[in-house]
Write a structure and sequence with these properties.
Elements (H helix, E strand, L loop, with lengths): L1 H17 L5 H24 L6 E5 L5 H10 L6 H10 L9 E5 L5 H10 L3 E5 L6 H10 L7 H7 L13 E5 L4 H15 L8 H17 L3 H16 L7 H14 L12 H4 L23 H8 L8 E4 L5 E4 L2 H11 L2
Antiparallel strand pairs: 1-2, 3-4, 5-6
Helix pairs in contact: 1-2, 3-4, 6-7, 9-10, 9-13, 10-13
């Protein structure tokens, strides 16, 4: 189209030179129209931006020739030929980096070429110890990697266990990566760094991860985590309710999410929270909650595997974060009066 417009302009100019003044204005007008057509066509092909907000994937081993045809078919670019021509003009390699791409804003064909050469942009994401699936959803959405709620919805569609098995770590996710792909990366990291030390029996494994998730939420130091692990084991053996605030917070957030209410933190816990009939309410129901309260790190997992023996049966977390222990209920009540009121 560009060649045709250019040829038309040249043809009209040639007529202009061969003719006299007769019809000169008409030929000049035609020449101007031809030149404008050339410029507009060049802009449409070489400078009109690729569609912002669109996503596409580059397969491993796919070259620019193959990709350019597919991008044109998918409506990502106006012309695959332009991409290939620009690559030659820029002396760029015909290879492109595989991965998932998301064009958050409009980019020119030339800019798109350099993006394909550099590969999908990576975003550093810190998943802290104890973060739940909903916390991770908030983190990823805040980084612009997903839409709010997308990660949670993906987890709900999965048959395998997810909560508790997403290893907390620093990740570098590529823009355009799906929630399922990020889940796989975090689970694979869990398999490498945590699984070798964990029980192989599925029931024992789940119990360990649930206990570790409680320790991660409730206790700060590795030493105190081991002591609290021993206390929880002792209370379970004696048929005592665990009365863990962290489990109430988990239930509260789920209840608020289902009601469409915005999460603004757990505390203060109310009588309504403690009366919640969720199986995660360890104030009402004996035993461990039915699932992990988040994704624990190695310290909490190690403590769950190696609980420390002690004379304590109660504990609380002071405002400073310090864990305060008690041997009996009377001592525990005094600690509550001293540290929490």
């Amino acid at each position: 189209m560009v060649v045709l417009a250019w040829w038309s302009t040249c043809f009209l100019l040639d007529l202009l030179m061969q003719s006299g003044l007769r019809g000169k204005r008409i030929i000049i007008l035609g020449a101007v129209i031809g030149m404008l057509a050339c410029v507009s066509t060049a802009y449409a092909l070489f400078f009109q931006p690729a569609g912002g907000g669109k996503t596409f994937s580059v397969k491993a081993g796919e070259n620019l020739a193959e990709l350019s045809v597919r991008l044109e078919q998918e409506g990502i670019v106006k012309s695959g030929l332009v991409l290939r021509t620009l690559a030659k003009l820029e002396h760029l390699d015909a290879t492109v980096k595989s991965g998932n791409y998301r064009l958050n804003s409009d980019v020119s064909p030339r800019e798109l070429l350099f993006i394909l050469q550099d590969g999908p942009p990576r975003v550093e994401v810190l998943i802290p110890e104890g973060a739940s699936v909903r916390d991770i959803d908030d983190i990823l959405a805040g980084k612009g990697l997903i839409s709010p709620g997308e990660f949670v919805q993906q987890v709900k569609t999965m048959s395998s266990l997810v909560e508790g098995y997403l290893f907390p770590d620093t990740y570098h996710f590529t823009v355009g990566m799906t929630s399922a792909e990020m889940i796989k990366i975090m689970r694979d990291n869990f398999a490498r760094k945590a699984a070798p030390e964990l029980p192989q029996d599925p029931r024992e494994l789940q119990k360990t991860i649930i206990l570790a998730s409680i320790l991660e939420k409730e206790v700060q130091t590795p030493q105190d985590q081991r002591i609290v692990a021993g206390i929880i084991e002792k209370r379970l053996q004696q048929g005592m309710r665990l009365q863990v605030d962290a489990s109430l917070c988990y239930a509260k957030r789920e209840r608020m999410a289902q009601a469409g209410q915005r999460w603004q933190g757990c505390y203060p816990l109310t009588d309504l929270d403690k009366a919640d009939t969720s199986p995660y309410n360890t104030y009402l129901f004996e035993g461990l909650p039915p699932g992990p309260l988040g994704n624990p790190g190695l310290s909490a997992i190690t403590a769950a595997l190696h609980p420390a023996s002690s004379d304590y049966l109660f504990y609380l977390s002071a405002a400073s974060g310090e864990t305060i222990f008690a041997r009996n209920f009377e001592e525990h009540k005094r600690n509550i009066a001293k540290y929490l009121r």
